[in-house]
Write a structure and sequence with these properties.
Helix content is 74%, strand content 0%. By secondary structure, the protein is mainly α. The protein contains 6 helices and no strands. The longest helix is centred in the middle third of the chain and has 32 residues, at 38-69.
C-alpha cells in the first residue's frame, strides 16, 4: 500500500493525469489532507481497504453458510448455475452471470440482510 501511496502522491505533485482514480487519489486530492504525512495517508488507505474487505467477506461467509445449510437452496442454486454455466471452463461475462436471478436476487440480498441483522444484535 505504501508504494501505491507514493506513486499517487508523485502523480498529484506533478499534476499527472491518471487513467483511473483510486481511493488514494481521493485522499490526496482532499483539501483537508494537504498537510497529511505519507504514513497518515497510508494508514487511512489501509483502514478504507479493510472496511470494504471485511464486510464483503462476512456477507459471502453468511451466504455460503445458508446455501450449504439448506439442501433445497443448494439444489436450486446448483441447478441454476449448471443451466447458466454449462461449461465451467468457459465462465460467462458478468452481465450474463447477473441474469442468474436466484443467485443475485435472493441469496446475495438475503446474505446481506442476515449480516446486517446479526450486527444489530451485537450492539
Amino acid at each position: 500500500m505504501r508504494v501505491q501511496v507514493e506513486v499517487a502522491c508523485a502523480q498529484n505533485e506533478h499534476r499527472e493525469k491518471t487513467p483511473h482514480s483510486t481511493m488514494i487519489h481521493g485522499i490526496i486530492g482532499n483539501e483537508r489532507h494537504s498537510k497529511t504525512t505519507m504514513n497518515e495517508i497510508t494508514e487511512e488507505a489501509l483502514i478504507l481497504e479493510g472496511a470494504g474487505t471485511d464486510s464483503t467477506a462476512q456477507a459471502l461467509e453468511a451466504a455460503t453458510f445458508y446455501i450449504l445449510n439448506d439442501p433445497h437452496v443448494t439444489a436450486r442454486l446448483k441447478e441454476e448455475l449448471i443451466k447458466a454455466i454449462p461449461d465451467p471452463l468457459n465462465i460467462p461475462p458478468l452481465p450474463k452471470l447477473k441474469e442468474i436471478k436466484y443467485l443475485v436476487g435472493f441469496l446475495i440480498i438475503y446474505a446481506f440482510k442476515i449480516l446486517i441483522l446479526s450486527h444489530r444484535r451485537q450492539w
